[in-house]
Amino acid sequence: MHNYSEAVAIAILFSSFFLFMIIRIPIAFALILSSIASAIYMHLPIMALAQSMAKGVQSMALLTIPLFILAGEIMSQGGISKRMVGFANALVGRVRGGLAMVDVLACMFFGGVSGSCVADVSAIGAIMIPMMKDKGYDNDYAVGITISGAVQGVLVPPSHNMILYSIAAGTIGGGASVGALFLAGIIPGVVLAICLMIAAFILAILRKYPKGNKFSLSLLFKTFRHAFLGLLTAIIILVGILSGVFTAAESSSVAVVYAFIITFFVYREVPLTQMKGVLYKTTKTLAMVMSLIATASAFGYMLAQLQVPHKITEVILSLTSDKNMLLLLINILLLFLGCIMDMAPLILICTPILLPALVAFGVHPVHFGVIMMLNLGIGLLTPPVGSALYVGCAIGDIRIDKLTKSMAPFYLTLVIVLMIITYIPEIVSFLPRLFHFM
Predict the structure, then answer these.
(1) How many CB atoms lie under 10 A from the CB of residue 364?
(2) 207 versus 250: which is more confidently predicted?
(3) What is the number of alpha carbons within 13 Å of residue 98 lying toward its C-beta?
(4) What is the pTM assigned to this prediction?
(5) Where are the domains of the chain?
(6) What pLDDT score does 310 carry?
(7) How far is the C-alpha of 373 from the C-alpha of 350, rounded, in Å?
(8) How far apart, in whole angstroms, are the C-alpha atoms of residue 66 and residue 158?
C-alpha cells in the first residue's frame, strides 16, 4: 500500500491540467496528461486510466452522437437553412427590425436540425448577416443577434450536448435520460427566442431600423410548404421517442436516413458527390468529441479516486444551506468557466463534480442539465474561447473587441433567461412530466 497525500494528488491533477491549458495543449491531451501525472504520484497503474477511457466510450447512448452530427451536416448542406430563413421571414419579417426576429426564428428552426450552436451560426449567419447589412442594419447588431439566437441550438432537440450531459450525469440522482432532456429544452428554447426577439425589437426602434415586406398569407403558406420537410426532422425524432416507436439511439439512425433522402433526392440542390465532404467533416468532429469523452473519463476516474465530488459537495454545503444561493453560485461559476473552456469538456468534467451537491439540495438532474446547457451556451459567445463568437466575427468581418462591446443587451437577455430557467423549474420540467419522463 503506497502512502500519498490526497491534497497533493488533487493539486497535481488540477494544476497540471490548467498549466497544459495555458500553454495551449489541446484539451483532450491536457485531460489525459494531468490524469497520468496524478496517477504516477499515487502509484496507480496507468492501465487503469486506459481501461476507464475504453469504458467511457462504450456507452450505447454515444451511438446517437455521430449519427446526429452526420444528419445535421447533411441537412446543412442541402439548402434547408435557406428555406427556414424564407419561412421565418414570411412569419415575422414585417415588423420593425423584422430581419433580426427572422434570424432568431431561423436559428431555432435550424437548431432543431443541427443540434449545434456553431452550426447554427455558420448556416444561418452566412445567409442572414449579409442580408441584414444590405438592408441597413449595423454589422455589430447583425452578428450579435445571430450568435445569440444560435444558443438555441444547445437547448432544442436534438442537442448533441444534451446527450453528453446524459452520459456524464450517469445515475447521479436517478440520472437524466436523453428523451427527458430533449423535452426539457423545448420550452426554455422558446422562452429564449421570445426574449431575444423582444430585445431585438427594442434595439431596432432605438436604432431606427427598417420594417420588412408586407405580411402575405399566401407567401407564408408557400414558404412553410418549402421548409416543412426540414422542420419535420425534429418532430420525427421527438414523436418517435415519445411514442416508443424507436429509442433515442435509434432516432439518430432515422434522422440520418431521413436527412439523406430529403437532401439528395427531394431538394436535390447538392450532388451526391458532396457526401464525401459531409463524411469528412462529420468524422473530424466525431474524432474530437470521442477523444474528449475518452480522456474526460480518465480524468473522472482520478476525481473519483480522490473523492473530489464528495469533497466539493461538503465545501458547497458548508458555504450555504440555501438552495437559491447555491444555484446562483453555480451559475456564476459556470459562466466564468464557459469563458475559459469549451462546452463539451466542461460538461464532462463539471457534471460529476457539481451534480451531487445540487441533488442533495433537491435539484433534479434534468433541471440542472438545461441550466448547464444555457450557461455554457453563453460561454460560446464570450472571449477568449467562444467558438460561436469567432465564427460570427469571421462571417460578419468584424473585430471581436468591437462586437463584444455591443453585445451587452444580448448578454443581459441571455442571463435574464438563465435566471428564469434556474428559479422557475416548471419551465424545464413541464413537458418531461407531461410525457412521464420525470
Answers:
(1) 20
(2) 207
(3) 19
(4) 0.81
(5) 45-434
(6) 75
(7) 12
(8) 12
